[in-house]
Amino acid sequence: MARLIRHDRQRPYLIREEEVDRFPIAVCACGLSATKPFCDGSHKLTVGENEDTIYVYDGDQRVPLRNRY
Question: For 52-63, what is each residue's pLDDT tens digit?
Answer without folding.
Answer: 888 999 888 999
